[in-house]
Amino acid sequence: MRASSFRYLVKKGIKNLWTNRMMTVASVGTLVACLLIVGLAVLFSINVDNMVEYIGEQNEMVIFLTLDAPEDYHLTMEQELSQMDGLGSITYVSREEAMDSVVDKYLEGDSGLLEGMDTDFLPESFRVKIIDPALAETLVQSVQRMDYVEKVEAPTELTRTLVNLRKMVNTFGGAIIAALVIVSMVIITNTIRASVYTRRKEINIMKYVGATNAFIRVPFAVEGVVLGIFAAGLAFFITWGGYDLFVQMVNTESTTWLASVTSHILPFDTIALRLLGYYMAAGVAVGGCGSAMSMRGYLKV
Predict the structure, then answer these.
(1) Quick one: DSSP state of residue 267?
(2) Residue 153 neighbours by CB distance under 10 Å
(3) In angstroms, rounded to a whole number, what is the distance separating the alpha carbons of residues 23 and 192?
(4) What is the Rg, in whole angstroms, of the alpha carbon atoms belonging to the chain?
């Protein structure tokens, strides 16, 4: 096909969008609605996964050393802990700090009652953040096998629940997104097929005068691609506005604890380009392929 012919067909495809503007509006509206549903499902899955990860990071493992641990052993152990994957900040608690904690918690800060008391009966300890909840049980078992470790306390049941919740969200989220994509393609294909049906006589005439299938397909494919790009852009900006509004409402109405969780909802600008890419790819693919596939039956004269 010559370049001049291709330019003519592209212009014809764009012109046809205005000529058949009622079907254009219907196609764009349907595609925008489908993209919004899929986009919201993607955003929900991403944010739930991010918040579960944040909650999991609040898990803390407390390691108590034996009373006969060497005086400087905590330095060696701190170094070993820092080299373990899945652990975050490491805080060493000396015997003196443990005594201060007991005084503040049980004696309301009246340290005079225990003045001069030996702290040798209190163990040294570490407070360690668990970054990856999935590794919590493995980390606890590894630490328990270390020298001079008396006891390890960690909310392993909570971390197991969080890990299972993340897997469930990812699994069901992926299934829902896949189902919505299939439904969207069916709806869009049927909508475009209706548009092609209204112009079946035009297609038949072109076939009778000797036009090739490619020559007939190009304007419809151009229409589908342009529809997809326009719908993707419109869906993107609607999602942007709705997402920002939702985040503002959540941050305003949340309680203190809930705010600490919802504050980890991802800012839109961190996922904007990725979401726009998804929208554009889906819009162009569904629009272009839908147009080409919907007219197959009308090319046989």
Answers:
(1) P
(2) 12
(3) 8
(4) 31
Judge contact between 123 and 65, C-beta under 8 A: yes
Nearest-angstrom CA–CA distance, 95 and 2: 85
Length of the chain: 301
Q: Is-contact 59 133, C-beta < 8 A?
A: yes
Which residues sit opposite 93 in a β-bridge? 125
**What whole-number distance in Å separates Cα of residue 220 and Cα of residue 232?**
18
User: Token digits for 120?
Assistant: 């040798």
The gap from C-alpha 70 to its chain's centroid, in whole angstroms, comes to 47
Instruction: Provide block-wise average pLDDT over 10 residues at a time, the chain (301 residues).
Output: 61 70 77 84 79 70 89 88 86 82 60 56 86 81 90 78 75 76 70 70 76 73 81 92 83 59 75 89 78 64 52
Q: Are 298 and 217 in contact (CB under 8 A)?
A: no
Query: In the prediction, which pLDDT does 120 show?
Result: 67
* Among candidate residues 222, 271, 254, the one with its CA nearest the CA of residue 11: 222
Give the containing element (helix H, strand E) for 88.
Answer: strand 87-93
Q: Which of 197, 238, 177 is nearest to 28 (CA)?
A: 238
Contact 15, 136 (CB under 8 A): no
What torsion do the CA atoms of 18, 20, 23, 25 make, to the nearest 10 degrees?
20
User: 């904690």: which residue's tokens?
Assistant: 101
Contact 24, 17 (CB under 8 A): yes
